[in-house]
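Following up on my earlier thread - several people asked me to post the actual chain instead of describing it. Fair enough. Here it is, all 338 residues.
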Amino acid sequence: MRSAKRAPLLQVVKSAVATIGAWLIAGWLVPGPLPVFAAIAALLVVLPSVNQSFAKAIERSLGVIVGVVIATGLSLLLGPQSWVVLLAIVVAMLVAWVFRATPGMGNQVAISAMLVLALGSSSPQYALDRIIETLIGVAIGIIVNALIVPPVLTAPARRDLGLLGAEIAASLDRLASALPTAQTPAQLQGLMVEARLLRPMRDAAEASITAGEESLTLNPRRAQRGDLAEMRALLDRLSPIVTQVIGMTRAYFDHYDDALAEEPTVHAIAEQLRRAGHDVRLAVQVADVAPEPSSETSAIPALTAPLRVKPPASGHWILIGSLMEDLRRIRDELVGEE
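Reply from S.P.:
Thanks for posting it. Predicted structure:
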């Protein structure tokens, strides 16, 4: 019954302005019955982004046109019978199904057919007036949504991407701390659980950046397009690192034994993981995703050279080889080398 998040008050104001404007203008330009179609169209078209409003306007307009044509044709063919309203609804739904219309457009076709027969006349002139009325409503809805502070959703994208970068760096640090020390089963399980949390965080950042890009489509306020492009580029760099961090943690979880902490190569890999965590934080700061720079993060990249080690002397070569390969891939993403 209640949404998890309240819609912005500005969205309510814009919807009200668009609905009132559509009612007044359509009533003035198209004399006759109350401009219900115009008011409904304007109310439905005002959405969080101009791009969504434009798509909804097309869906709404086509749905009304098809529904009005169906209702008018059936009424002229079968007469003003009450059961014709039900027949028009069924026919409208079947037509939408045949042409694989979206759910929104399919519902609009059926609703428009019902309203035309239930509220008005079946004459062609009445049908034409309702179509014109709907077009006026959707046009006003788009104009109002574009002119009254169009929303630009860059803040959520910056927030989610910053959280992702911070958690990647923290996961690298946690793995670096775990490698040279003995771990209990509970600690190993905790490492695995925390690493797996990176995937939903990456998906959240992807969704926020996509929403931000959509909010700028057909939006007069395009000054922040460069910021979103930079955030998208950073996400493209961080996404493979998420996969590598989870893979490294999984390999450590699967092949762990207490003697692993005594392997000299493990200590070297741990140091490189800390350096990689530093460079992830640096990349996030350079992209201005985390405007508050950490005092522990210098402006000089820490992964300045590849790590070269001799083959391990123990039976840990499978795990160490896996960690080395994943570390190489992380370095390539951070340093920018193929």
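The mean pLDDT is 82. That should answer part of your original question.
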